[in-house]
Amino acid sequence: MLTYVYSIKHHSRHYQRRLWEHGFGTYEKVITGVAELDDLVTRVHLDEIIKSENQINLWTKAESVEEVIRTGKNFIYPTYSKAPPWGAARNIEWVIETFSHEMIEAINSGQCNLIVDDSFEGVRWSNEDVYEFKLLLSQYNIDITKIIVLTASWSYIYNGFPFRMIYYPYAEHHRHINSEDILPPRKPDAKKFLCLNAHHRQNRFELVYQVFKRGMENNFNISYLASMDDGEDVIEFWRGLADNTDDPYPFGEWDEDRQRFLKLTPIFYDYTKDEIDHEGNTNLKDDSVENNRAALSGTGYHLKSKKVGNVMSNPVFHRENSWIYVITETMFDDCIGKDNSHRDVSEKTWKPIGLKMPFILLHQPFALRRLRDIGYRTFHTIWDENYDEITNVADRFNAIMDLIESINNREDFLDIMHKCEEIVEHNFQMLKLRRPEMSMIKECSTFLKDG
Amino acid sequence: MVNFIKISPIVDLKKIKDKRFILYYWFAKNSIDVNLMTLDQAIDSGENFIYTLYPKEPWNVSEHIKKFSNELVDCINSGRCNLVINDAMEGRKWCKNNIKIFIDSLKKKAIDASKVIVLSQSWSYIYNDMPFRMVHWLWHESIMSENAKPIDVPRHNFAKKFICLNRYNKQDRFYFIYQMYKNNLLDEFNFSHHKVTSKDDFDMWDDCNWLWTDDMTEFAETTPHIYDDVDCWKGDEFIKIDPKHRQDNYIYVVTESVFNVQKPYDPFDGMTRDTSEKTWKPIALKMPFIMSHQPFALKRLRDIGYKTFHTIWDESYDEIIDCNKRMAAIVDLVKSLSSREDFVDMVESCDNIVEHNFKMLKLRSPEQDMIKECSTFLKG
């Protein structure tokens, strides 16, 4: 049986590197030997392992991959896709082009599990992607059947890929580790809804627009930061979308009213008004305050850099200040078509579960059904959740807006919130009990030797 | 408040001793008020109601619906009545011909298929595109979750290493027990198997899997083997959790009903059934288990929250599609575990896993999708 898993530090500054360590680091039966340590969580955990009487011969430091290969021990080499192109998990040439013959032999002989970690995103694998991946690996004489790809897409749990595709919902695992069962009650002035939107998306914009148009903004803690990854002007971007007749705005006509509303963005929730000037720039003198705020904020949005930082944070004031979490997931498509795939819910959905809050979910169809299948409960006994089964994008969106409006108008709002308590408590217990890293652990610690 | 028709004319409820076979029990359990009505009362009331059928084959409903009144058909088509076909105990395969039989039967009675709900235990159909409302419900998990009580009884000194119970004759079950016999391992087992005289005693014996041999005939002569002396088809015996099984044994070898090559990623090419009560029993008894089932059954269990034993022993059998090779891997695994000198220590090292699984069984609430769909009335 497995005794050791050696992990080679290769690009530890990248956040995904640490995500992967979490997977093993929290599992009681697997020892993680980490060549070098660069974060406190791992260091503490490693100390605990060293103290354990059952664990011996722990790997402490590797000078090079070749040094590990020569020991004859099995080891794991995690990597991740690097843009361009964005969104293609297969693009790992930037790392395999550095591999020695020894390293390639170690992979092909089953001594090394090369892991492509896409467990945070779970991008789609089209037939073309699979073909390109095959081609890339064959160019470097790497046996594709030995490669492990971790994905956050539950479309691929049971699959027939030519490589070892393993489903690992990292975001759920992270929230499992980082949720505490001590939560404050709501403040008397808590708003009915919380909806945080960092990156621009059509469904996110339309939701925020509709909240204002339907006069519900006073019952919302809401943000729409309209952040762009590459410094592109957001208004120009949206104008481009509106003019794109091949891919028209799915929620009706992109009209002057929406254009006017767009100019009111960004809309902040996590910052107070006196901390932001009329152009949305921070007035904070001390950068560390902004950094802390960004780290604490649900969106992790840095005002100065206009970048999203720590998206995994889940501050308890979100619960104190709001009753229902309206989650705007990244994907809001119909999942119909040749290469359709379902992504798992992201960190956005695990946040309200970790905060014991009820939620309404803007995501792909059947996202709630999937949550129920894996043990969580949703709110169909409290309000209408049939939106989950509507595949048409506009119809699903309208059903969700109508639901929000009807809940907003309910005179017994607090009563229905109390009815949700049993469900949110169940969900928290489920989050703490589930161990979604199991299949990842199993596969990554299985070394397929030749013959 | 959800209205149910009190007595389905097709089902003799007197024969069903356990009320948990009936749909409305699960509504009440989830704190949803239930109102029982006669069919006439329901039609006259103008309210929504649920009417459940329990046909042996879920697509063969002609006999059940032929006496439906025009008023009842109107109620179904207008969305006032949810007609529910309950196959949540089995989860049979819906091949294209079965779907056609079902739709044709409904058409003949002028029933709108898109209003009809079918409950299935097969997880191939969780996300489906059927012309009716197909809903997945792991009824066995629901009921075993109810039945499971905290258990800590220790093993007896004379406990055997394995338990394997086989009531209905299936070739894979016979073959497994035969392999244990051939490897002189039956002394390590508490096991049962029905009388077998030849391969004709099986619904299907596929010689492509395992050729019937003289050795098998010799072993068949030793059958039947009885361990717990329970007729599982009497009443609710088959869902009973017997602490004796835990006291007398260390590892449960579960021989599920289906052992084939069908894969979950070809859902309409084949069919994958969820695990039955056979697998929930060791979980309820906090026992480790080895599963003889369709490929990826353990992966499915892990996906829905359970832990399996891959850190203690090799579970790669779960991902072997080929039946021969999968069975050979299971047999090899049992042989290797049986020969371990640290067998008891090894089983004790499963404690965290079996405790986790018990908690998960008690926490999960697999009837949620059924409740949601059955209480949704599609008007218009």
Secondary structure blueprint with pairings:
The complex is a heterodimer of chains A (451) and B (380).
Chain A: E1 5-7, H1 15-25, E2 32-34, H2 40-51, H3 65-71, E3 75-79, H4 93-96, H5 101-109, E4 112-118, H6 127-139, E5 148-151, E6 164-167, H7 170-177, E7 191-195, H8 202-213, E8 220-222, H9 234-243, H10 256-262, H11 287-296, E9 301-302, E10 307-308, H12 317-321, E11 322-328, H13 347-354, E12 359-362, H14 367-373, H15 393-408, H16 413-419, H17 421-433, H18 438-444
Parallel strand pairs in A: 1-2, 1-3, 3-4, 4-5, 5-6, 7-8, 7-11, 11-12
Antiparallel strand pairs in A: 9-10
Helix pairs in contact in A: 7-13
Chain B: E1 2-5, H1 23-29, E2 34-37, H2 39-45, E3 49-53, H3 62-65, H4 70-78, E4 81-87, H5 96-108, E5 117-120, E6 133-136, H6 139-147, E7 160-164, H7 171-182, E8 189-191, H8 214-220, H9 243-248, E9 249-255, H10 277-284, E10 289-292, H11 297-303, H12 323-338, H13 343-348, H14 351-363, H15 368-374
Parallel strand pairs in B: 1-2, 3-4, 4-5, 5-6, 7-8, 7-9, 9-10
Helix pairs in contact in B: 6-10, 7-8
Report what the structure shows.
The complex is a heterodimer of chains A (451) and B (380). The model of chain A is unreliable at 1-63 and 291-298 (pLDDT under 50). Chain A has 18 helices and 12 strands. By secondary structure, chain A is an alpha/beta fold. The radius of gyration of chain A is 23 Å and the shape is globular. In chain A, strands 2-1-3-4-5-6 form a 6-stranded parallel β-sheet. Helices cover 37% and strands 11% of the residues of chain A. In chain A, helix 7 (170-177) packs parallel to helix 13 (347-354). Chain A has 2 domains: 5-169 and 436-444; 191-433. Chain B folds into 2 domains: 2-137; 146-363, 3-Layer(aba) Sandwich (Rossmann fold). Chain B is built from 15 helices and 10 strands. In chain B, the strands form 3 sheets. In chain B, strands 3-4-5-6 form a 4-stranded parallel β-sheet. In chain B, strands 8-7-9-10 form a 4-stranded parallel β-sheet, with helices on both faces. A two-stranded parallel sheet of chain B has the order 1-2. Classes of the chains: A alpha/beta (451), B alpha/beta (380). The interface between A and B is large, with 34 and 39 residues.
